[in-house]
Write a structure and sequence with these properties.
By secondary structure, the chain is of the alpha/beta class. The chain contains 22 helices and 16 strands. Strands 2-1-3-4-5 form a five-stranded parallel beta sheet, with helices on both faces. A five-stranded parallel beta sheet has the order 9-12-15-8-16. The protein has a two-stranded antiparallel ribbon with strand order 6-7. Bound molecules: adenosine-5'-triphosphate and magnesium ion.
């Protein structure tokens, strides 16, 4: 007897050609018209060698059926079948233990090769590609997908060389984790790792923090104090938020990069350091250089080697793995039983854009642990996904979209000249968005970072939109009531 195949589909008639092909290959084909029927079927022996499970079915959907079938028998070999190739769904299916994800129309050859690989015994617990994990003290870096694995490879390549490393990425993407990793993998791993947040201090304080001072350098400087560059000798100095470094200090930092020399405040002779410099920022340094806020010579020195961490929404395949990782971690911290993620909750999480990236995800998992109510967090998450879809709509605007009504002409005047409805609607949406941005910017007194926070979008996205709507010129900044551009 050949293999036993169970087809779970509300419209199996459409698969008649396939059933015929399988039977011709001596397979025994059974059909279940809904998820519950499939669940009942696997209560009986002999179990199917392969289950073809339709993604979209009325009642219990494909993913939920998949989850429940795998709960009943973790060894079942289940292949998801869908009309559309949806990467997010495919990722979820894989996380829930599906062996494959195929799109209709199915070809018999796809299945016979799957069947060849599927003697029942061997199918038990298809091992999911296990994510790599690197421990640095009590810090854990999960390499949950290709993007992180690629970043990790770059870390390994650069760690042993004493070149400056620049880490780029939105807030919460893991730049600090990566900085530790570079240090940990470097020959100076046993030496100090010293972090300085360049955005946290006003210019003079930051200078004394970085370079130290001599006794009597300023009022209150009773004793001499070494700076972070001295403390980091032989090790690594991590300059976080480098994009916010005041211009006066950028020149001094350039000196350190050029010949390792700097001068303590109030000192007459220069000191030296051999600390390896890692810097990080979530700002667009190219834009900062264009605005003369950041020195380009410094940029080229700092970015001897740069590593960019993509936002979580561009590596969604990592979401399920990271959710489980954070759940395990915080369940331990809070001494609570770790909570499961249902297919529905996972799906909402994979669809959500996570503007705050991994940090936002950490907070979400903590919230779930504390509330311990899956329905509640699911509802919250679904609401955020829906809100994101509305907010995302104007993103498809063409680059030359009109600036807001306030900056030019009466509302929609130009748009009305456009004949076609789609571009009219797009234009109107763009105007509405531009108007909201201008208002929020005014409310934030022109502080773009604050405006981005209020709008719940990344700083980079805000800069992009400002440029797109022509709001980044000094004139329009003034029009929006901004104090600072
Ligand atoms: N690969 C990872 N594996 C496990 N945890 C991670 C990973 N990346 C980031 N995290 C966790 O997510 C949080 C945010 O990471 P991190 O502080 O490194 O981000 P960041 O890019 O420096 O953000 P910001 O720009 O806001 O400072 C941290 O608590 C960190 O431990
Ligand atoms: Mg950071």
């Amino acid at each position: 007897m050949g293999s036993r195949v169970l087809i779970v589909d509300d419209e199996p008639e459409a698969l008649n050609y396939l059933i015929a092909g399988l039977e011709a290959s001596h397979c025994e084909v059974e059909v279940a018209r809904h998820g519950l029927a499939a669940l009942q079927r696997v209560q009986q022996d002999p179990l199917p060698d392969l289950i073809l499970l339709d993604m979209v079915m009325p009642g219990m959907g494909g993913l939920e059926t998949l989850e429940r079938l795998r709960q009943a028998h973790s060894g079942l070999k289940i292949v998801m079948v869908s009309n559309v190739n949806d990467t997010r769904k495919a990722v979820l299916a894989a996380q829930l233990g599906a062996a494959d994800y195929l799109t209709k129309p199915l070809r018999t050859v796809d299945l016979t090769s799957l069947l060849r690989l599927a003697p029942l015994a061997a199918a038990a617990e298809t091992p999911l590609a296990l994510p790599g994990v690197e421990r640095i003290g009590d810090r854990i870096c999960v390499l949950a997908g290709p993007a992180m694995q690629a970043a990790y490879q770059q870390v390994l390549q650069v760690a042993s060389l004493n070149v400056p490393v620049l880490l780029l990425g939105e807030s919460g993407t893991g730049k600090e984790v990566l900085a530790h990793l570079v240090h940990h993998r470097s020959p100076q791993a046993a030496r100090p790792f010293v972090k300085v947040n360049c955005a946290a201090l006003p210019s003079e304080l930051l200078e004394s923090e970085l370079f130290g001072y001599e006794a009597g350098a300023f009022t209150g400087a009773i004793k001499a104090k070494p700076g972070k560059f001295e403390l980091a000798r032989g090790g690594t100095i991590f300059l976080d938020e480098i994009g916010e470094m005041p211009a006066s200090l950028q020149a001094k930092l350039l000196h350190v990069l050029q010949d390792g020399s700097f001068t303590r405040l109030g000192a007459t002779r220069p000191s030296t350091t051999d600390a390896r410099i890692i810097s990080a920022t979530n700002l667009d340094l190219h834009a900062a250089m264009a605005d003369q806020r950041f020195r380009s010579d410094l940029f080229y020195r700092l970015s001897g080697f740069s590593i960019e961490l993509p936002p979580l929404r561009e590596r969604r395949e990592e979401i399920p793995v990271l959710l489980r990782h954070f759940m395990t971690r915080f369940a331990e911290t809070f001494v609570r039983p770790s909570l499961p993620f249902s297919a529905e909750l996972l799906q909402a999480c994979v669809e959500y854009d996570w503007p705050g990236n991994l940090r936002e995800m950490e907070n979400f998992v903590k919230r779930y642990l504390i509330l311990a109510d899956e329905n509640l967090v699911l509802e919250e998450m679904q609401r955020k996904v829906a809100a994101g879809k509305v907010a995302a709509a104007p993103r498809t605007l063409p680059l030359g979209a009109r600036p807001p009504a306030r900056a030019a002409g009466p509302p929609a005047a130009a748009a009305r000249e456009q004949r076609d409805l789609k571009s009219l609607v797009r234009g109107l949406k763009g105007e509405a968005e531009a108007e909201v941005i201008a208002e929020v910017l005014a409310q934030a007194h022109g502080v773009r970072k604050e405006a981005a926070r209020l709008l719940n979008i990344s700083y980079k996205a805000l800069l992009y939109k400002l440029r797109m709507y022509g709001l980044d010129t000094p004139a329009s900044a003034k029009a929006a009531g901004a104090g600072r551009g």
